[in-house]
Amino acid sequence: MNRTTMSLIAGVTALAAVTGFAALSSPDAAGAGAKAAAQLPVERTSLLCPAPSDSDLAETSYTSFTPVTKGTGSGGNAELRAAAQQSGDGKKAGNAGKGKKADKPVLEPKEPGTPVTGDSTGADAPALVGTAGGRFAPGWTVQETTEVAAGTGRGLQGVNCSAPDTEFWFPGASTAADRTDYVHLTNPDDSAAVVDIELYGKDGALESTAGEGLTVQPHASEPILLSTLTDEQQTNLTVHVSVRSGRVGAAVQALDDKAGGDWLAASTDPSGSLVLPGIPKDATDVRLIAFTPGDADADLKVRLASPSGLITPAGHETVHVKAGMTTAVDLADVTRGEPGSLVLTPTDQSVPVVAALRVVRGKGGKQETAFIPATRPVGTRATAVDNRAKGTTLSLTAPTRTARVKVTASAGSEGGTPASKTFTIKSGTTQDIAAPVPSALKGTYALTIEPVSGGPVYASRTLTTTQNGVPAFTTQTLPDDRGMVSVPQADEDLSVLQK
């Protein structure tokens, strides 16, 4: 046997040992047909939480939860640590958080299946960088919820801490005089990330070079005020974050002088059809913001999935989205006292689009704002955390086919017994369900949604409270938690070693 052949054998053996998925079989058996990919739990998850607020009146809670997942073994851990903060010019400004040491975890879960909570006050709370491994990784979910008593953005602000990525779309941002919008960028890695931020208004791209080549230092976070990137004041903008090198987490904090504010999470990837689930039944004003990044215009059919089925809003049967331009449509009180979800489909040719809803509750000087971006379906499983005994609404939508869904309430963070219920969501409807609550609940709890049969399901969770007569609220969409991954079953083919 020559040296080349021995090297090939050594390489194949090493590959089999590293992957752990190679199975020895004969060439004939390998050619008999490909085996189905195995669904296995992910072994590592990263989550990034933006700095919650620059208000001295802010009260922030963090909730971490991992559903119990079969096949994960008994090892692993999860932790959230403070990120370094940067100045506006990209220079490192040191770790934020009074009394917090950079080497001490801010939050460290102990067991899957039970939520863990933490809190902070004031304007010094830092962004957080989180990692989970082993049994804590599959479906790991962290929510950041902030109450601001007064001032710009007063009300309830909530965001699901997100995984790092290389591209994000945020329709619904603004540089209007009454808005203060920041895009928060957090880098979880050991090397710097280089990021471009582009803004698109009603007439197309806004001229600016200030958003090009922004550097985010390793393990650091930087909030960037959108109004520093352009001199134009526009009510409805689409923000595009693209990463030249590295990866970041990104979220937009949209704060209004009079109508509260919230976090705007990224829209799902551009698609010809979109679902925006869970408009509250008492919404007083709903605005659709849409953008198509391609060269072709998009014509979309607009429908509302109500409790009784799909309906077309009067006067808003379709929307035309010009290529490269942000389009906004005011739908007023489109839900008419019932919960609903917006379903966008192409009228003819399918053109990829991103979209979000700006939703208002209350009237006059007692308004509060939240955002619902287009989202992915629940898929295998999704989880909402920081649910309370009162003021929690879970909304489920089955836009194309009837679906059965299992919803499980975890134990409470301070005590309580898990509970489960199964619901049927009829085709074309949205249902605010009576979700299960842990018995003898103490603290907050998690809700895990698992489709059992039928068509795709989209979900969102809304938290509500009242602050000085203001109906404060925040809504989080619940896409698949990506806790499971398809791993192809590989076979060694020793015929490649034969001459």
> Gap between N and C termini, in Å?
11 Å
Task: Report the biggest beta sheet as strand number plus sense, adding barrel if it closes.
Answer: 6 strands, mixed
**Which oligomerization state do the chains in this entry correspond to?**
single chain
Tell me the helix content: under 10%
By helix and strand content, what is the structural category? mainly beta
Q: Please, what is the average pLDDT?
A: 89
β-sheet strand percentage = over 45%
Low-confidence stretches: 1-33, 87-101
Shape verdict? globular
- Radius of gyration equals 24 Å
Describe this protein with a few key phrases:
2 helices, 499 residues, mainly beta, five-stranded antiparallel beta sheet, six-stranded mixed beta sheet, disordered N terminus, 4% helix, 41 strands, 50% strand
Polypeptide structure, described:
This protein is mostly beta strands and 499 residues long. Helix content is 4%, strand content 50%. The protein has 2 helices and 41 strands. The strands form 11 sheets. The chain has a 6-stranded mixed sheet with strand order 7-6-17-13-19-20, with no helix packed on it. Strands 12, 14, 15, 16 and 18 form a 5-stranded antiparallel sheet that branches. Strands 21, 23, 24, 25 and 27 form a 5-stranded antiparallel sheet that branches. A hairpin with a 2-residue loop joins strand 23 (298-306) and strand 24 (309-311). The protein starts with a helix and ends in an 8-residue tail after the last strand. Mean pLDDT is 89; it is low at 1-33 and 87-101.
Topology of this structure?
Elements: H1 3-19, E1 22-23, H2 27-30, E2 38-41, E3 44-49, E4 58-65, E5 76-82, E6 84-86, E7 92-95, E8 116-121, E9 128-134, E10 141-148, E11 155-160, E12 167-173, E13 179-186, E14 193-201, E15 204-205, E16 214-216, E17 220-225, E18 237-245, E19 249-256, E20 261-264, E21 274-279, E22 283-291, E23 298-306, E24 309-311, E25 318-321, E26 327-332, E27 340-346, E28 354-361, E29 368-373, E30 382-387, E31 392-398, E32 403-409, E33 415-417, E34 419-425, E35 429-433, E36 439-442, E37 445-454, E38 458-467, E39 470-477, E40 484-487, E41 490-491
